[in-house]
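Running log. JK asked me to keep both predictions on one page so they can be read side by side. First protein, sequence followed by its tokens:
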Amino acid sequence: MGDKTLTVRRANQGTMQPKPEQENVLLHAQQQIAFQRIMMQPGVMATTVVCLTQVVTEDELRDDEEYEDIMEDMRQEGGKFGALTNVVIPRPSPSGEPVPGLGKVFLKYLDTDGSSKARIGMNGRKFGGNEVVAVFYPEDKFEQGDYGA
């Protein structure tokens, strides 16, 4: 990676678990690789909105207390990457009508610097046992309240 040599070895069963500092180094390396892949992809335009999927379930969103806890978690986690201006988590409708964007979390940032860091930092992370997928979301659709894309 860059000017450093990356050594890869086959994992053997029965060996010790990696130490926390080794996990941090591995996580950082994975994030760097993901960042480089994103920067190399043609046509992927950064927006100020990041959409997270595989983060929350419909049942979690029905419970008011749990919904507030999730909102607070998202504000805290999202705020680590830049200045958040809005967090939207669509909730199930009491009547059972389909809700566009249900199960997604939308993080709106002040600038694309924050949203780019969030997309890289949150993509692939575990949340509630699921691997989060983070993608840029069109700003115009977000501003119109169109969360179904």
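And the second, directly underneath as requested:
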Amino acid sequence: MCFGDFFSFVRSVTGVVLLAVGLWWKFMLGPYMLLISSSPSNAPYVLSGTGAAIVLFGLFGCFAACRGRPWMLKLYAVFLSLVFMTELIAGISGFVFRHEIKGTFLTAYSAAVMRYDGRDDRSLAVDGVQRRLHCCGVYNYTSWFSSVYFPISGIPTSCCVHVSDCSEADLKNATLAAQKVYKEGCYELVVSFIESNMGIIAGVTFGIAFSQLVGVTLACCLSHIINTNQYEMV
């Protein structure tokens, strides 16, 4: 295996990692992001697309290094520079978002609970969060008492510890419902979950971003060496 093969293999591995991070964000954090933003985030697609592009250009870098074409190596270095800038911006945005999430999520999640109808995307996202994290309401199950849904159907079944043990009559009765639903609220759990996971995503993105600088340096050095050898041969 030539140096170019090894170098490009390492780049491809970072691309696969970034692709996996993007997909993980989409499927693991997607429901939570829907409760924070009015529209789905494009960040997972950006990370996945960048990861896939790194894998493809890793093959191009391998071909360029083993063929000894300086212009290809320079093109590869330009691509890695663009990737570095994209990942750096994504990493910074992740850290900023991580520290701004508390106020944003409290407002958005409270509004989603108050307007819950059990059918729209935000309502389904609320159900998903309550089932996954075993929580109920914003601070606790009493958050549902002031929602538009409670007078009609009571507390949502997604709050039930055991769904088979929850009847609509129980969930509409504040006293009985307290014995059937999760006691802990979702706000603190979700904020903690997103902050920790956004920290991991931002950290991985930063690490991969700075690894691109090593790639740029090596590609430029290799191009210079090839040019120098060709000049000496002439």
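Observation for JK regarding the second prediction: Residues 1-67 form one domain.
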